[in-house]
């Protein structure tokens, strides 16, 4: 698991706080606003407005290192914009002129929401401080004043939930010290590595980057005072200490993750109910008539955070003992006649919409590999493991750019990884929709490597 998952409960807390907040503003609207003001249109308006404002103001982007002052700043932005939109609704829709009921409503709502927001924030701090829960194991590598400041920060702020396991000085044999720190991070199941850029060469910095990518570790840098970055990195502050994150993944954002999950559920239900409901019995007849065996082929694959799951497909081959070891190649004798058709048209992949509905896959994402191949590529291909920071998909950016099917040479898997990382770092719902349309177009047109 990555540090984003180990011991972090925000994945559960944020959806709950969203629902609580939306319930609060809806209930208060019913009890605090005049009867002629309250309507289904107003409820829809305030719920949508609240979410849009929250996304733009970062109202729910509160982390363990976020300052209380920053939280109050978010609250004030949310209150001001929400109040303005409520007044706008009153002017355009109900022609309501009295300001006091609206102001009374927005003030009561934001105070109540803020109370619960701060309550959760402080309860989590106490939970980390007194019970040692929700901890992240971290190491610091390097020297300089920023390292000493970060050590002091971790030591004096246990409520932030960071457990400093070890500090590695790079004085002396720097190369040996770096290797020692990386081995320690791997052996001791460290979640995050904080690396000082003080007197660190580009080559040495890249060794940390490659290690974190290939071993699913979170890497963050401590910049020097005059350090200038050419990469598009994310900057956070722990107290007043600048911390640079190596990679900003849009799907780490709860709103993006929720939007993608809703899209996955809706899209998979459409396919399952509208297509698979009548296609399954037809294919069952053809598949079982040509060869003995089950209708579905189940295979272990690696998904989010390298976790194994059962991936479903329509069986396109005769039963054989090497199905989990060897990919299908061109003119493979194991493939049945009906199997050739469903593989050529990608129909064999359709049962994976059940994986999407369950939640261990997405409609769009990096294609998952067989467990044996994942282990092989992880050792052979640089940054291959980065693909496991997000859910695997039925189709992906690499597949729509010609890198689907059998891996015939190193170029195939290297470029597949590059496209997957680009997708992960530049995700948007529009990009997903584009990939889906390209996949449908390629399936109708027919692809050279679809066999």
Automatic annotation (TrEMBL):
Q: Where is the Bacterial sugar transferase domain?
A: 260-444
Which cellular component terms (GO) are annotated to the entry?
membrane
In which organism is this protein found?
Answer: Flavobacterium noncentrifugens
Q: Does the keyword Oxidoreductase apply?
A: no
What membrane topology term does the record carry? Answer: Multi-pass membrane protein
Q: Which NCBIfam families does the protein's record reference?
A: EPS_sugtrans
- Gene Ontology molecular function, alphabetical: phosphotransferase activity, for other substituted phosphate groups
Location in the cell reads: Membrane
Keywords (A to Z) from UniProt? Membrane, Transferase, Transmembrane, Transmembrane helix
List the transmembrane segments: 12-33, 39-63, 75-96, 102-124, 265-287
Q: What is the lineage of its organism?
A: Bacteria, Pseudomonadati, Bacteroidota, Flavobacteriia, Flavobacteriales
Protein known as = Putative colanic acid biosysnthesis UDP-glucose lipid carrier transferase
């Amino acid at each position: 698991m990555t540090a984003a998952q180990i011991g972090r409960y925000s994945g559960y807390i944020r959806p709950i706080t969203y629902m609580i907040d939306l319930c609060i503003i809806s209930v208060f609207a019913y009890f605090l606003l005049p009867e002629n003001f309250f309507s289904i249109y107003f409820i829809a308006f305030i719920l949508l407005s609240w979410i849009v404002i929250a996304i733009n103001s970062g109202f729910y982007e509160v982390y363990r290192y976020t300052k209380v002052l920053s939280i109050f700043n978010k609250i004030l932005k949310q209150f001001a914009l929400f109040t303005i939109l409520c007044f706008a609704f009153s002017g355009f829709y109900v022609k309501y002129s009295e300001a006091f009921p609206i102001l009374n409503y927005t003030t009561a709502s934001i105070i109540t929401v803020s109370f619960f927001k701060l309550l959760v924030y402080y309860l989590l701090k106490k939970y980390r401080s007194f019970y040692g829960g929700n901890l992240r194991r971290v190491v610091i590598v390097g020297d300089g004043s920023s390292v000493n400041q970060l050590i002091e920060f971790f030591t004096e702020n246990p409520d932030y939930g960071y457990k400093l396991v070890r500090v590695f000085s790079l004085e002396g044999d720097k190369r040996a010290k770096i290797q020692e720190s990386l081995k320690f991070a791997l052996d001791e199941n460290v979640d995050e590595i904080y690396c000082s850029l003080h007197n660190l060469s580009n080559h040495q910095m890249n060794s940390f980057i490659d290690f974190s990518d290939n071993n699913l570790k979170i890497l963050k840098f401590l910049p020097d005072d005059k350090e200038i970055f050419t990469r598009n990195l994310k900057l956070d502050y722990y107290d007043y200490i600048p911390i640079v994150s190596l990679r900003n993944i849009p799907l780490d954002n709860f709103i993006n993750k929720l939007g993608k999950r809703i899209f996955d559920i809706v899209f998979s239900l459409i396919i399952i109910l509208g297509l698979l409901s009548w296609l399954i019995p037809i294919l069952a007849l053809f598949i079982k008539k040509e060869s003995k065996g089950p209708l579905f082929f189940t295979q272990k694959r690696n998904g989010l955070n390298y976790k194994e799951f059962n991936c479903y497909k329509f069986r396109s081959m005769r039963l054989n003992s090497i199905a989990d070891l060897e990919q299908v190649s061109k003119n493979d004798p194991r493939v049945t006649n009906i199997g050739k058709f469903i593989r050529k048209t990608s129909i064999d992949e359709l049962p994976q919409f059940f994986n999407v509905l369950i939640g261990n896959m997405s409609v769009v994402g990096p294609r998952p590999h067989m467990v044996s191949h994942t282990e092989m590529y992880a050792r052979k291909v640089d940054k291959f493991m980065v693909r496991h920071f997000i859910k695997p998909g039925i189709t992906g950016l690499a597949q729509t750019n010609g890198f689907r099917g059998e891996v015939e040479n190193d170029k195939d898997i290297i470029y597949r990884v590059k496209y997957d990382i680009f997708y992960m770092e530049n995700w948007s719902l529009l990009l997903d929709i584009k990939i889906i349309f390209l996949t449908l177009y390629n399936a109708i047109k027919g692809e050279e490597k679809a066999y």
